[in-house]
Write a structure and sequence with these properties.
heterodimer, A: 360 residues, mainly alpha, two-stranded antiparallel ribbon, 70% helix, 2% strand, B: alpha/beta, Rossmann fold, 2 domains, seven-stranded mixed beta sheet, 13 strands
Chain lengths: 360, 344
């Protein structure tokens, strides 16, 4: 290095320090220092890949551990049936969480709507399409109420939906008398209510209309969120409400609309749930709100709003379903299934935090 | 609600007046009693209230009823007990939401000379109340176990049994019914206080239903995945049984599968009548409450407290097998009679 010049007139004393310096040419700093850094950076660009990888891995692992029963096309389609209702609620939940909110009332509003549909069609003899229509309107109203309280009365979404969760639950018990409407009575008077329970067989797999509906809802929401102005507004409001406001978005209106659409999605879920459960069951889905949040979180949508793909929660719901099914078929006690899902949730959020910390 | 209460008061007053007419004077009129249920919405407690109200009218007892807002609403129940003590009631009929936390306030009531009878749900410890009027849940399970075994006959030796239980926490009603069924069927249960520790290969597995249709369906699907040849299904209650039937239907397996259950609610008995459930053990909330009122009347008159059923630590209010396919050696009633006595 310094040999050439130094040879001519000998090495000067003050040049000694040079030897220790960095001799490389100036360059941009590289992100890709280690495999881990590279992974972190990749995931930051493609956050949905985390749940997808976890899903594929867990299917592979449980296929190995729990054996052929688990890996059959029939069982995998059964998992889809089992998560369909929570999946639909997770779609509604995602919309709200993308705006940095949370909706604890999704399950209760869904059950309430299913009771309204059942009461109208089965107990009071109205035509089923009318009962379903009224149910949809009630679902939207329930969501609008949440949105109104969040934007106009300016209460935190957690508190608002904690309240409406209880209110909807009480109304549900009042309207139903805590008594289920039997499957056989629905068959006799309003079989349309159970339409989503019908299924088509493809090879060994059995897809109910309900599980197809779940995928459709996610597809529509994906389009709306990514390809329409309204969808971009939702992300903007969630990312930074004030900035969104300043850039001309009517944020409160967007928020109310988000809650109303979430309510409608829950109402659609209510119709599907009658098909799934077979009866109108006021006691079912009591933890559906928390399960939907779990699916959203595992699906990689940030609870701080504005970040994450709507496809994630679908994958998140499937992961929970795969875990439950796999652990059951492996003969694991129920309480350890609960345990596993708990850890899964925490790891998912920790992973999300780690990805966010990527050096930009 | 108010109108209802008003009607009831009027009815009570009328009943009281009737009694006075029969010259059974003041004594009866002075006796007050309280009924405290977990909620006043669940059909089971509605029936309980009905039984208590009718019996109180008959005996000329003035009855006040209280209920928690939801199952688990302990505070409201404590306040109700305190109100009853203050009102000078002679007896309290109680279905406690929190069976342990209720004990201190129950002690306060007993110290004040009030007769406390636990209905349906024993306190912990059970002797914290003066008496407990409840269904023998072990026997309820045993009856459907015996019925299933007798119906299968020789095939019982290689039955494939799915057990649809309540929750992961295994509350006592869950354990008693589950273990009772196995005992009735002739299966060695292992530790009688624990679900799922038996090693009989006929048990395909246990899963939880939360006592509702959705859980019943999912649990049945899971156990069918574990073994598609399931031919006996035990369910903790009738909503779970209805859900299990949906799963069997979607698997195309309703033929040749026995579904048994416990409760005797009206929709459940209707399902027995229609062949969806093979047999169910019926319990009698109305009877628990009316016997409770009678016991309070007797206590007010003579100071005598009710005795437990011999061999048990509570008073057994009875459980009856309801089925349209009776078997030798297991007493049962048909669904028509079951529907007359059902609740909800």
């Amino acid at each position: 290095m310094s040999e050439a010049g130094g040879a001519a007139r000998g090495k000067q004393e003050f040049e000694d320090g040079l030897e220790k310096g960095d001799a490389s040419v100036a360059a941009f700093e590289s992100h890709e220092k280690t495999v881990l850094d590279r992974l972190q950076h990749f995931l930051h660009g493609n956050p949905t890949m985390v749940p997808v990888i976890v899903l594929l891995l867990s299917i592979a692992v449980f296929g190995f551990v729990a054996g052929g029963n688990f890996f059959s096309a029939f069982n995998l389609s059964l998992v889809m049936q089992q998560v369909s209702i929570i999946g639909i609620l997770a779609a509604a939940q995602s919309l709200v969480i993308l705006t940095a909110g949370i909706d604890l009332s999704v399950g209760a509003s869904m059950v309430l709507v299913s009771v309204i549909m059942g009461n109208l069609a089965v107990k009071m003899g109205f035509p089923a399409p009318l009962a379903i229509g009224v149910g949809f309107v009630c679902g939207m109203l329930a969501g609008t109420l949440n949105g109104f309280l969040v934007t106009r009365v300016k209460l935190p979404p957690f508190i608002v939906t904690l309240g409406t969760w209880n209110i909807f639950f009480a109304l549900n018990l009042w309207l139903s008398g805590a008594q289920s409407i039997r499957s056989q009575d629905i068959d006799a008077t309003a079989p349309l209510l159970k339409w989503f329970g019908e299924s088509i067989r493809i090879g060994g797999a059995q897809f109910t209309y309900g599980s197809i509906l779940m995928v459709l809802i996610f597809a529509v929401l994906w389009y709306v969120l990514n390809r329409t102005a309204w969808g971009r507004h939702v992300y903007a409001v969630g990312d930074d409400k004030e900035a969104a406001e300043l850039s001309g978005i009517r944020t409160n209106r967007t928020l109310v609309q988000v809650y109303a659409v979430a309510g409608l999605v829950c109402a659609i879920g209510a119709w599907a749930s009658i098909g799934r459960v077979g009866s109108v069951s006021p006691q079912s889905f009591q933890e559906a709100n928390l399960q939907s949040i779990t699916a959203v979180v595992i699906g990689g949508i940030s609870l701080f709003g504005g970040r994450g793909s709507i496809v994630g929660p679908l994958v998140g719901a499937l992961i929970v379903g795969v875990f439950n099914s796999g652990l059951r078929l492996a003969g694991v006690d129920v309480l350890w299934q609960v345990f596993a899902i708990g850890w899964l949730t925490i790891i998912a959020v920790a992973l999300d935090q780690w990805i966010r910390k990527v050096s930009a | 609600m108010t109108k209802h209460a008003l009607l009831k008061t009027t009815a009570l007053a009328l009943a009281g007046a009737g009694f006075l007419g029969l010259a059974q004077p003041a004594a009866a009129q002075d006796v007050g009693a309280c009924l405290i249920t977990k909620t006043d919405i669940n059909p089971f407690f509605v029936k309980m209230k009905e039984g208590a109200t009718a019996k109180a009218e008959e005996l000329g007892i003035s009855l006040s009823t209280f209920a928690g807002k939801v199952d688990g609403d302990h505070e409201t129940q404590v306040q109700a007990v305190e109100t009853c003590i203050a009102s000078g009631a002679k007896g309290i009929l109680l279905t406690a939401s929190d069976t342990k936390a209720m004990v201190p306030v129950v002690k306060k009531a007993r110290d004040a000379g009030v007769l406390v009878i636990a209905l349906d749900t024993p306190l912990e410890p059970i002797d914290a109340a003066d008496a407990t009027f409840a269904t023998d849940n072990f026997k309820a399970g045993e009856l459907i176990g015996q019925w299933a075994a007798a119906t299968l006959g020789d095939a019982a030796a290689d039955a494939k049994i799915a057990m649809l239980d309540l929750t992961p926490s295994q509350p006592s009603v869950d354990v008693l019914r589950d273990q009772g069924f196995m005992t009735g069927f002739g299966i060695e249960t292992g530790d009688a206080d624990r679900i799922g520790d038996e090693d009989d290969p006929r048990i395909v597995g246990h899963d939880i239903t939360n006592g509702n249709e959705e859980g019943g369906r999912k649990a049945m699907e899971n156990l069918l995945q574990r073994d598609p040849d399931v031919n006996v299904v035990y369910t903790i209650n009738e909503p779970a049984a209805a859900g299990a039937y949906e799963a069997l239907q979607s698997f195309g397996k309703t033929e040749g599968v026995l579904v048994v259950s416990i409760d005797g609610g009206c929709p459940g008995v209707q399902n027995v009548k229609e062949g969806i459930i093979g047999a169910t053990s019926q319990q009698y909330p109305l009877l628990m409450a009316s016997l409770g009122i009678e016991a309070i009347a007797k206590f007010a008159e003579t100071g005598e407290k009710p005795e437990p059923t011999p061999g048990l630590d509570f008073f057994d209010t009875g459980v009856t097998l309801v089925t349209d396919q009776p078997v030798e050696g297991v007493e049962s009633i048909g669904t028509d009679e079951g529907l007359e006595r059902c609740w909800g």
